[in-house]
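queue> holo job accepted (zinc ion)
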Amino acid sequence: MQFVENKQLEKRVAKQTTLLLNQVKHEQEKNELATEEKVTKKANLVEVSYPPSEIPSIDGFDFDQITQESMKKMEKKLNPKDPAVLVSHLAINHYTEQLAAYEVAVDLYLWQNKSEEFIKTKTKTTKPVLINHSTGQLITSQDLIKKEENLLGIQQVIQQMLLDQAADPNLILDEVLNLPRLSWDTPMTYTEEQLVVQLPQNKLGQTTIALPYAKIQPFIQTDLVKPEYLIPPTQALDANQKYVALTFDDGPSPVTTPKIIQILANKGIKATFFLLGQNVKENPELTKQIFEGGHELASHSYSHPSFNTISKEAVKKEVIDTDKAIFEATGCLPKILRPPYGAVNTDTAKVVGKPIIQWNVDSLDWKTKNSAAIQKVVKNSVASGGIILMHDIQPATAEALDQVINDLKAQNYQFVTIQELLEQKMYPMHQYFGQFDQRNI
Ligand SMILES: [Zn+2]
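queue> job finished
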């Protein structure tokens, strides 16, 4: 009688297998990708796989191979006497509109003697392979970074990170500032949490750096990154408020700059100082004092030449020497630069590699050297989102500043630094004349 019973059981298993396969197939038809069905029967085990029929080939992702390996591992743990069904399919997980993860999931259905049906008891999922949904391929550095200006921006982030990570940053400062530029040929590896960049040939003894996406967020296509690895957008400036940024060039000067920062401190205002490297070198303590006052420190070249009249090598030296002087005084590299006389062209902007900050209100303090005239010109020419140009080396500016601020306050202006005014959306190869006026170079 044993024989008959087994036959009957076999029939019931076969019937349930058919039901299960129909159900699985039905589920599979809902998948966004077209698939084929492959069924293999070995004694008590049925293996079903749904290789996608349309996806382009992706490096390091072979559905059939992954399926075979996974199934083999799961098969080993099964009792050959128990009826079982293994189903392998491609699971697509959308993290953003552009970012999808492909993973192979293998489900194990085991025969239940009591209820006489198959129950899913286990799912084994392989490591997700992240795909650019637009191309259907692995994400490349060019997909992620897109523009050369972003490569330049990332270069600056890397330089500051290398210095932050160093036991003694001063020992590597020259190497870091002279680090060759990243290019589209620079090997970079996209991973879920960070971008791993192979550093260009250098004497630092460091070959790669891992960049968390939040650190390079302004310079990447954020819809190619899982949202959990990004910083949520910060509170934007209030569209109903009027903002201005006070900027001071050519300092620091031991005579007039202390007066200026005292007035700013009294008024509770943060400004942006475009420093000359040679003056920083002579006044490192004063530079540190400006920095510690919460002001933004920026580069205005080392010795104030017009960038359009000197060689690219000379421009590079002006930038690097100033970065070095400011870093030695404060531990921070300046992120932005105002070229002397506002003189910049495509070639020099590329050499500079930082966002270029111009102005749209010229106090003419360098020309009039007269407190009343400075007050008048600022009061009359300011507009919302303005960047006001002044010079902290001018005694008349120190004299005028208190009243300049009072006049702006009377017109309901709020005072912000350049970073705040432009909400950190500043890119190399671009110049900014005000909150609402940015131009390509
Ligand atoms: Zn200047």
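queue> The chain has three domains: 2-138, 141-229, 242-440.
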